[in-house]
Design brief:
Helix content: 25-40%
Largest sheet: 8 strands, mixed
Radius of gyration: 31 Å
Number of helices: 10
Distance between the termini: 106 Å
Order of helices and strands: HEEHEHHHHHEEEEEEEHHEEEEHEE
Strand content: 15-25%
Structural class: alpha/beta
Number of strands: 16
């Protein structure tokens, strides 16, 4: 009985010890919250590669590592952009839009509502061009062009129909047109346009890229790096693709005409201040418009300071060039250049130095730079465009189309200004 109070006293003493130990932690937590409230908020905007020889996603890794150092530096707090609004749903994927529009066009054509079919096909083709980077099978795009050709032949717009059919044959060369099996007359028209296209003079495409040096493909054929000029390109529509240093795939549709050179500018996609700033930095240029975009992004994140910059190749490693500004500044301040390894494995200490300088000096951490400025001032981007010839192996004889349900009429094509066909 005399031993019973001892465990109770021990439990009481232990509880008091825990409470006393917790008090400093609580006070320290409150002090930490106050310190964070007084900390300078810094927004780190995505660093951009200024040439294609920078390792993939190096800019994103540099951005993340600097943001991490700022987050743990005393006197600084990381300012992050507000989350996207949930009130407005994100737009549908372009290829989803294209495929739904194709279904509508097919149904409208079967109902002989050619005006609605043509409008739906216009939407489909625009959406296919917007989603070209993810289009794995060019036959989808070819079928959209072929269907528009059939619709326009049905309404008497023969010249426009022939142009659409030329695009269908060019974007998927060597492939038969499945729609030709639905009409003997359309099947003969396909063969006539195919023969005419092969006899036409060819054109060309010139690719320019931001940043320079991006590898591009045309109809799946590697062309080398931009700037590059492609000659002997068959008339019609062609799919192009490229991958940016960020890892983002971009692409589109270019329409080539005989004896003409089309120009494709490969660059970061998107709109708004973030896209404008990314495009400027990837082009190794910081001007007043880019500075305004950076200020807008900083204000949206509630930042007092904004850091932005570029990544370039220097020997076996990389160079980080950065600027700091307060939102609304008309001139940025350049931070000291950092030399880091190509994989940014040992970049912690140099980036920690940037963060410490920002904590100590704020916007005065850098030297004033006049606009326009070249972030990577010692990088030479002058390059003469290469010239390559479009591969001709794709112009093989296509597989025969499925036989039509009725014999094909053996007659000449209809004259211009004819009456619309009832059935293409």
């Amino acid at each position: 009985m005399g031993y019973c109070p001892v465990p109770t006293m021990m439990r009481t003493a232990l509880l008091l010890t825990l409470l006393l130990a917790a008090l400093p932690a609580t006070a320290q937590s409150g002090a930490s919250r106050k310190a964070r409230a007084r900390a300078v908020k810094v927004a780190v905007l995505p660093f951009q590669a200024v040439s294609a020889d920078v390792p993939s996603r190096a800019g994103l890794r540099a951005t993340a590592r600097l943001a991490s150092e700022i987050h743990v530096t005393e006197g600084l707090a990381l300012a992050e952009p507000p989350p996207p609004s949930t009130d407005t749903p994100p737009p549908p994927e372009p290829l989803t839009v294209a495929r739904e529009a194709m279904k509508e066009a097919t149904a409208a054509r079967e109902a002989r509502d050619f005006a609605r079919a043509d409008a739906a096909l216009t939407r489909a083709l625009d959406a296919y061009a917007a989603g070209a980077a993810r289009l794995s099978d060019a036959s989808e795009l070819a079928d959209a062009y072929a269907l528009r050709a059939a619709v326009r032949y049905a309404t008497g717009r023969d010249d426009e129909a022939a142009a659409s059919l030329t695009h269908a044959l060019a974007v998927a060369p060597g492939r038969s047109v499945p729609l030709a099996s639905t009409s003997p007359l359309f099947a003969k028209t396909v063969e006539r346009v195919r023969a005419s296209r092969q006899s036409q003079p060819r054109g060309g495409v010139r690719f320019e890229s931001v940043p320079p040096g991006l590898a591009v493909t045309l109809d799946g054929h590697p062309l080398g790096t931009a700037p590059v000029r492609v000659t002997e390109v068959p008339p019609g529509a062609h799919l192009w693709r490229a991958v940016l240093p960020s890892g983002e795939a971009v692409g589109g549709v270019v329409e080539v005409t005989s004896d003409q050179q089309a120009v494709v500018k490969v660059r970061p996609a998107g709109t708004g201040p973030d896209a404008a700033l990314a495009l400027a930095l990837a082009g190794n240029r910081l001007d007043s418009a880019a500075l305004e975009a950076a200020s807008a992004l900083g204000r949206a994140a509630g930042a007092s300071l904004v850091v932005l910059g570029t990544v370039s190749r220097t020997g076996p490693g990389l160079a980080l060039d950065a600027f700091v500004l307060a939102p609304g500044d008309t001139s940025p301040r350049r931070l000291p250049r950092l030399s880091v390894d190509a994989d940014l494995l040992e970049s912690g200490a140099p980036l920690r130095g940037w963060a410490a300088t920002l904590a100590a000096k704020g916007v005065e951490a850098g030297t004033t730079e006049s606009l326009p400025a070249e972030p990577a001032a010692d990088v030479d981007f002058a390059a003469l465009p290469m010239q390559v010839t479009y591969p001709t192996s794709e112009e093989h004889t296509p597989a025969a189309a499925p036989p039509a349900t009725t014999p094909a009429p053996d007659r000449k094509p209809l004259a211009p200004n004819r009456k619309p066909l009832v059935r293409p």
